[in-house]
Predict the structure.
Amino acid sequence: MKKLIIFDLDGTLLNTIDDIMDATNQALSKLNFPTHDVNKYKIFVGNGIDKMFERALPNGEKTTENISKMRDLFLPYYAKHGKDKTAPYQGIKETLLSLKQKGIKIAVASNKFHEGTLAVMNEYFFDIPFDVIFGLRDGHQPKPNPGIVFDILSECQISNKNDVLYVGDTSIDMQTAANAGIEKIAVTWGFRSREELLSCQPEYIIDQPKEILEIIKKAE
């Protein structure tokens, strides 16, 4: 019986890409740099916002100073507009509630900055009692470093990794789970391709959230 399911946030629980794109593009525009379409942002995201800014900046402009300017422009805009277009993926909330009803703990491990993670979780999942929610906190390494997973295991008082599943939509998530020694579920409704996910050799790959419940049932 699985005791804990750890979820990535962006691209797994929430479709946030349009709001992330809008917030980053307005920062680029204010700095007189070219903007990008949504398909580019699906590749840019995943390693934290500073890495996203670096990827979005033009060649020759990927400086610490410009990344800092991007952050200063992005954060207040995203705080105001970060929920304009964001929404949970279809079937996610029902699946989360079913997991809780089964007595399974649920957690979030995100590379989104911690304050932003808490804000969107409080907006969209206020009615679901997550056991732990961690974004990228100051002084902590981003995924695929497994530290965030180990912190969640400690908070949930779970020592046996066989009792845990990790759910995510990118190769970064799959690497995080592998680095932590935890079985991984790759989801195809997020930001990356099935081909990318399959190359990471996940134990499971699914097309709908309810399939998580089927995996749990088989593990009972």
